[in-house]
Amino acid sequence: MSFITLAVRDLAASRAFEEEVGRILVRARELGAHPVSEPVRREWGGCCGYFADPDGYRWEIAVNPGSIGQMVLPSRGPADG
């Protein structure tokens, strides 16, 4: 059995800058994770990437460009109210 151990500060990516997403994904790979997705800029303004741990569970590392607790979504038009 193998384990990937990331520090809590590594998993708190929502508070980090976009560059941190890439660094965390690289670190996860160094510790035995399997890459699923490189960091990608999303339409809502954030950035996220994915890896799978040795047991196959997928993890998302993401950055929300807004303040912590603030949801940032694009407007879809008049129906949004």
UniProtKB/TrEMBL annotation:
What's the superkingdom here?
Bacteria
What sequence ranges are listed for the domain VOC?
1-64
Please name the source species: Candidatus Brachybacterium merdavium
* PANTHER family according to UniProt: BLR2520 PROTEIN
UniProt cross-references to Pfam families, sorted A to Z: Glyoxalase
Gene3D superfamilies xrefs: 2,3-Dihydroxybiphenyl 1,2-Dioxygenase, domain 1
Can you tell me which residues the record assigns to a coiled coil?
none
Q: What is this protein called?
A: VOC family protein
